[in-house]
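TICKET #2291
ISSUE: user wants both folds in one file
ATTACHMENT 1:
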Amino acid sequence: MKTLFDCKKACKVKVKKLNAQPDLKQRFISFGIMKDAELEVLQHTARKSTVEIKVGSMQIALRSNEAKLIEVEKI
């Protein structure tokens, strides 16, 4: 399964599964990152240490290790 970290810039995806511990999973949900949510990858930093995404009208930067916990499929 593809993770959010694997997505390229301008890729639009749908969340399939969150593989995070309960505290981090709750944080994702508070940002609107939950199963079946649609996200857009805006950019990766130079060393791919963070991934900037758009969730609804909000822009969020996730650490690469956090982005690797979010399974997605392209839409």
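ATTACHMENT 2:
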Amino acid sequence: MSGPDKKKYNPGNKTGYEYVLLADHLAGFIERGDWAPGSRLPGERALSEEYGVALDTVRKATQILRDRGLVQTLKSKGTFVTQRD
């Protein structure tokens, strides 16, 4: 049984922790302006399915984005791109 193709977040086959590579990939969307300030990121489950990774990998990647100040998570609301100075 084969499902839909998963998106590639590491096309260069870099080595490192999967959650860091995913965080770097998602940060690219923010830095390029694909995800504008104030926009809501897809949910953790959706990202997990989209990239074919464990839910915990997505959660760790989201935490890295928060630590970098790129996003903020509001309980029961979601994760949003922060305003950049």
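RESOLUTION: both attachments delivered.
EXTRA DETAIL ON ATTACHMENT 2: The longest strand covers residues 71-74.
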